[in-house]
C-alpha cells in the first residue's frame, strides 16, 4: 500500500530532506509540496490522488494553523516543527479526543540517537537531583529552547514525579538558563553547529553527561520515514519518536 503525503515547508532544510526521502521510497508518494507562498488547500493534493498524511515542517508561529487545517480536512498529521510545548499540546490533545478517527504525531527530533539520548536522560533523572540541559543549534534557528530540549525536560520532570523537582538554585539569575518543567535549559545558537544536546546530571562526587551530536541531516531520515509510515494508523496524540519506537 502506498501512503500519499503532502509536505508543508517543503523548501526548508528538513522539508527538502523529507521530499527527497518520500520520492525515493517505494511505499510513499509525494502528492503536494508546499512552500511559504502556497495556499494551504494545496495540502489536500489532486482530486484523483488526495493526500492521506500531512507532514508539517514549517515554523512555530504557523504550525498550529496548519495542523488545524489538516484535521478539518480529515488528514492525519506528522509535526516536525519546534515549539510544541506541553501548553500547546494540551488543547490539541483535547481536540483529538473529539476526533477519534484522526491522529497527530508530534516529533521534536526525528533522529533515532536523539530519541535514545532523551530516553536515557529521563531514566537517569531518578538518581540525580542536579540536572541541566545545554543545547546547541545553528545561528539560523529562530526558536529557543529547542523542541528536543523542551521534550527532554518534560520527560525528566515526569520521571522524577516521586522525587520531586530537580535542584535548580539561583533561578532569579538569567544566566542560569530558562526553566522548562523545572529543569534549567541553556541554548546556544552558533555558526558551525547542526544540532547538539547535552544533559548533565550531578550527584555527590560525580557527574553523568548524556550527549547527542547531529553532524548531518541524514540523521533524520529513519525517523521521518518511520513517522510517516506510522501516521495512517495513528489515533489521538502521540508525542515523540520514542513513543513510536516503544522506548
In words, what does this structure look like?
With 247 residues, the protein is α/β, with parallel strands linked by helices. Helices cover 30% and strands 26% of the residues. It has 2 domains: 3-110 and 218-245, NAD(P)-binding Rossmann-like Domain (Rossmann fold), CATH 3.40.50.720; 112-215, Dihydrodipicolinate Reductase, domain 2, CATH 3.30.360.10. The protein contains 7 helices and 11 strands. Strands 2-1-3-4-5-11 form a 6-stranded parallel beta sheet, sandwiched between helices. A 5-stranded mixed beta sheet has the order 7-8-6-9-10. The radius of gyration is 18 Å and the shape is globular. The two termini are 27 Å apart.
Task: State the distance separating the first and last CA atoms.
Answer: 27 Å
CATH class of the largest domain: Alpha Beta
- CATH topology of the largest domain: the name is Rossmann fold
State the shape.
globular
Category by helix and strand content: alpha/beta
Main β-sheet: number of strands, strand sense, barrel status?
6 strands, parallel
Distinct helical segment count: 7
Rg, rounded, reads 18 Å
State which percent range the strand residues make up: 25-35%
Number of domains: 2
Query: CATH homologous superfamily name of the largest domain?
Result: NAD(P)-binding Rossmann-like Domain
Give, in spatial order, the strands making up the sheet with the most strands. 2-1-3-4-5-11
Amino acid at each position: 500500500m502506498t501512503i500519499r503525503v503532502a509536505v508543508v515547508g517543503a523548501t526548508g532544510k528538513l522539508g527538502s530532506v523529507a521530499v527527497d526521502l518520500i520520492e525515493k521510497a517505494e511505499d510513499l508518494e509525494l502528492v503536494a509540496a508546499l512552500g511559504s507562498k502556497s495556499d494551504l488547500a494545496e495540502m489536500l493534493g489532486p482530486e484523483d490522488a488526495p493526500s492521506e498524511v500531512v507532514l508539517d515542517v514549517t515554523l512555530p508561529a504557523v504550525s498550529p494553523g496548519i495542523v488545524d487545517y489538516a484535521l478539518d480536512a480529515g488528514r492525519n498529521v506528522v509535526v516536525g516543527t519546534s515549539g510544541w510545548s506541553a501548553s500547546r499540546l494540551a488543547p490539541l490533545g483535547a481536540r483529538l479526543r473529539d476526533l477519534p478517527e484522526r491522529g497527530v504525531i508530534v516529533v521534536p527530533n526525528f533522529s533515532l540517537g536523539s530519541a535514545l539520548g532523551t530516553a536515557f536522560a529521563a531514566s537517569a533523572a531518578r538518581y540525580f537531583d542536579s540536572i541541566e540541559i545545554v543545547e546547541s543549534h545553528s545561528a539560523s534557528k529562530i526558536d529557543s529552547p529547542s523542541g528536543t530540549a523542551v521534550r527532554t525536560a518534560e520527560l525528566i520532570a515526569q520521571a522524577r514525579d516521586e522525587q520531586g523537582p530537580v535542584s535548580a538554585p539561583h533561578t532569579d539569575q538569567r544566566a542560569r538558563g530558562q526553566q522548562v518543567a523545572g529543569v534549567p535549559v541553556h541554548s546556544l545558537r552558533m555558526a558551525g553547529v547542526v544540532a547538539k544536546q547535552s544533559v548533565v546530571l550531578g550527584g555527590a562526587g560525580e557527574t553523568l553527561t548524556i550527549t547527542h551530536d547531529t553532524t548531518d541531516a541524514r540523521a533524520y531520515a529513519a525517523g521521518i520515514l518511520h513517522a510517516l509510515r506510522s501516521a495512517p494508523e495513528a489515533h489521538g496524540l502521540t508525542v515523540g519518536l520514542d513513543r513510536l519506537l516503544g522506548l
